[in-house]
């Protein structure tokens, strides 16, 4: 049994129900919109966030109709944010295929993202649950705030890990935390359980983003983005920040400022990547990621042992060991 099969096994039936609702939500009589949606659907990924919602709802109670609507809403909001991010970042590729803005144009891409966002709101509205709606609404704020914070950080003259954690909380950890929180809410969990579930999602999300940031130093095209892609966009992540705050090399610091300013050549970026790797940046980031993995495991440790808990442990392993 593969890792993904093991993760999905306890919720296979409910995941199929989620997929049907998700598919039915993305319909329109507009041919151009449907072409764009079909393109997005080709790279839907493994639906890790809806899987998390379903697993945690089952852990704290049972999967209800509200759970499914919540999972659909969150996945649509996440997808909308990716479509918009690709416009902001001027990215030509998403998950190994052309981005919407590359295949069509920025105008179409922004409007498709708006449609996905509006559809997310329709789906969460179907829950008729103010607490769940509140979680999704605040998540939308966090995602936008995180993107703006990341953009403003490009001109920051400091190599701040605090700013880095603020960005990844709002852009990634907040999404996983929201998935966990709505799961517990939809299952009717206690206030204490909702808090613990939210912590679990936050820690898991931080692991996920640090792993993604480590991928930027990989020379493998299989990860779905070119090596140094974040740095081409002026972004310095945890491996680089660690090394920059320890190095005495003014040349490397000056190169980092050139990267942040979008002035570095591809050759210079590869030189910088080599320096970060040689000076322990990847090892440091991996150690931080694993510490958050351990924090997430501590959250669910007191819960009874069952196939859901085993699936969640496998989920964490998958996040930190994945190859793309």
TrEMBL record:
It is an enzyme of class 2 (transferase). One of its GO terms (biological process) is isoprenoid biosynthetic process. One of its GO terms (molecular function) is heptaprenyl diphosphate synthase activity. It comes from the Bacteria. Its cofactor is Mg(2+). The keyword Transferase applies. The keyword Transmembrane does not apply. Its EC number is 2.5.1.30. Keywords: Magnesium, Metal-binding, Transferase. Pfam families: polyprenyl_synt. Belongs to the FPP/GGPP synthase family. This is Trans-hexaprenyltranstransferase. It comes from Bacteroides coprosuis DSM 18011.
């Amino acid at each position: 049994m593969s890792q993904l099969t093991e993760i999905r096994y306890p919720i296979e039936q409910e995941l199929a129900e989620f997929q049907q609702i998700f598919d039915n939500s993305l319909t329109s009589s507009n041919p151009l919109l449907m072409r764009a949606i079909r393109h997005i659907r080709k790279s839907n990924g493994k639906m890790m966030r809806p899987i998390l919602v379903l697993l945690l709802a089952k852990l704290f109670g049972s999967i209800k109709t509200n759970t499914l609507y919540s999972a659909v809403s969150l996945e649509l909001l996440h997808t909308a944010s990716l479509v918009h991010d690709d416009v902001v970042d001027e990215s030509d590729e998403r998950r190994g295929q052309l981005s919407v803005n590359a295949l069509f144009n920025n105008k179409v891409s922004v409007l498709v993202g708006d449609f996905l966002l509006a559809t997310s709101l329709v789906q969460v509205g179907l829950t008729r649950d103010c607490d769940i709606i509140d979680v999704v609404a605040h998540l939308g704020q966090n995602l936008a705030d995180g993107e703006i914070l990341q953009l403003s950080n490009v001109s920051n003259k400091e190599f701040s890990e605090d700013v880095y954690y603020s960005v990844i909380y709002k852009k990634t950890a907040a999404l996983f935390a929201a998935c966990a929180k709505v799961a517990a809410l939809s299952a009717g969990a206690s206030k204490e359980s909702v808090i613990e579930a939210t912590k679990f999602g936050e820690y898991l999300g931080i692991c996920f983003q640090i792993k993604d940031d480590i991928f930027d130093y990989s020379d493998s095209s299989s990860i779905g983005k070119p090596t140094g892609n974040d740095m081409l966009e002026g972004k310095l992540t945890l491996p680089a920040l660690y090394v920059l705050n320890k190095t005495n090399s003014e040349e490397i610091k000056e190169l980092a400022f050139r990267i942040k300013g979008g002035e570095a050549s591809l050759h210079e970026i590869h030189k910088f990547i080599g320096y970060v790797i040689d000076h322990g940046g990847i090892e440091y980031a991996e150690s931080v990621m694993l510490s958050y993995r351990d924090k997430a495991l501590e959250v669910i440790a007191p819960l009874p042992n069952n196939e859901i808990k085993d699936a969640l442990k496998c989920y964490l392993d998958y996040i930190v060991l994945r190859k793309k």
